[in-house]
């Protein structure tokens, strides 16, 4: 068994303690230790909403094109053979063997026992399948993934997680400190608004993995920490939640922010 496989198996077992790990970020001393290991200044993670009815600036492409661009530019592509979150949480809704995608020069170091080394075309097909099945992708850089995969240079490794509600972030981030929660950045220029069709049914409250949807005076309200994943709008049966992007430069701003932390070339 290679070093990367041993590291992956160890971190996978730790997923069962994810709530405890996130709660630890609320304690100053433990948080300082975690910062030395993870280096939060290197982290940039952003959910990419897949809703078909997103209101976009004129002639603008869908948000998923951000991930497509990184896949096309990447020097190397790896798809994990299984998703640690889904497999460790015994997910019943999505395939536990539908894994995350990793890009960049450092992805070459990923143990073949852990992930399939694939072409850009295969990575793009994997992304399309994730979107088709309703998984919401989050893209960016996270040193914890490099540690899990036994990769040395996390600045050359891009993460693309195809998340379901079992995801370690979506299931446990609510237990973390505000500083830790803010490491997930909302897509530039994205707005989530409740319209007049809302009847206060509360479906969006159940759908929101960040606990940012609430019912106030018979109508849904979206909280300040909304990350723009779009799950609430997908779940709403009345199309009462609008997702829009008003800034024409939103896509380039997001790409530049992510590129400032991780290089996939």
Keywords:
single chain, 265 residues, alpha+beta, 2 domains, two-stranded antiparallel sheet, 35% helix, globular
What does this structure look like?
Helices cover 35% and strands 17% of the residues. The chain is built from twelve helices and ten strands. Strand 8 and strand 9 form a beta hairpin. Helix 4 runs antiparallel to helix 6.
Question: What's the count of strands?
Answer: 10
Tell me the number of structural domains: 2
- The strand order across the widest sheet is 1-5-6-3-2-4
What is the approximate shape?
Answer: globular
- Tell me the span between the first and last alpha carbons: 29 Å
Strand content: 15-25%
Give a quick rundown of the structure.
This protein is an alpha+beta fold and 265 residues long. The protein contains twelve helices and ten strands.
List the helices and strands and how they pair.
Layout: H1 3-14, H2 18-24, H3 28-38, E1 44-48, H4 64-73, E2 77-80, H5 84-88, E3 101-103, E4 115-118, H6 120-132, E5 136-141, H7 143-149, E6 158-163, H8 168-172, H9 178-181, E7 190-194, H10 203-207, E8 213-216, E9 219-222, H11 231-235, E10 241-245, H12 250-259
Antiparallel strand pairs: 1-5, 2-3, 2-4, 3-6, 5-6, 7-10, 8-9
Helix pairs in contact: 4-6
């Amino acid at each position: 068994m290679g070093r990367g496989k041993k590291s992956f198996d160890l971190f996978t077992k730790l997923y069962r303690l994810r709530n405890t790990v996130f709660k630890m970020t609320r304690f100053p001393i433990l948080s300082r230790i975690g910062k030395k290991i993870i280096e939060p200044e290197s982290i940039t993670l952003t959910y990419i909403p897949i809703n078909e009815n997103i209101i976009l600036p004129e002639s603008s492409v869908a948000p998923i094109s951000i991930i497509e661009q990184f896949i096309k530019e990447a020097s190397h592509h790896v798809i994990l053979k299984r998703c640690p979150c889904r497999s460790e949480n015994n997910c019943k809704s999505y395939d536990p063997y539908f894994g995350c995608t990793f890009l960049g020069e450092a992805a070459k170091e990923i143990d073949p026992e852990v992930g399939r080394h694939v072409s850009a075309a295969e990575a793009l097909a994997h992304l399309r399948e994730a979107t088709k099945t309703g998984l919401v992708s989050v893209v960016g850089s996270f040193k914890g993934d490099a540690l899990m995969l036994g990769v040395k240079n996390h600045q050359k490794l891009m993460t693309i997680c195809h998340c379901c509600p079992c995801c370690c972030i979506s299931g446990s981030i609510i237990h973390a400190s505000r500083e830790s929660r803010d490491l997930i950045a909302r897509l530039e220029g994205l707005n989530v608004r409740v319209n007049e069709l809302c009847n206060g049914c509360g479906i969006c409250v159940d759908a929101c993995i960040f606990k940012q949807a609430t019912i106030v005076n018979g109508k849904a309200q979206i909280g300040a920490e909304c990350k723009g994943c779009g799950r609430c709008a997908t779940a709403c049966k009345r199309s009462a939640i609008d997702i829009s992007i008003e800034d024409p430069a939103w896509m380039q701003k997001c790409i530049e922010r992510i590129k400032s932390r991780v290089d996939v070339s």
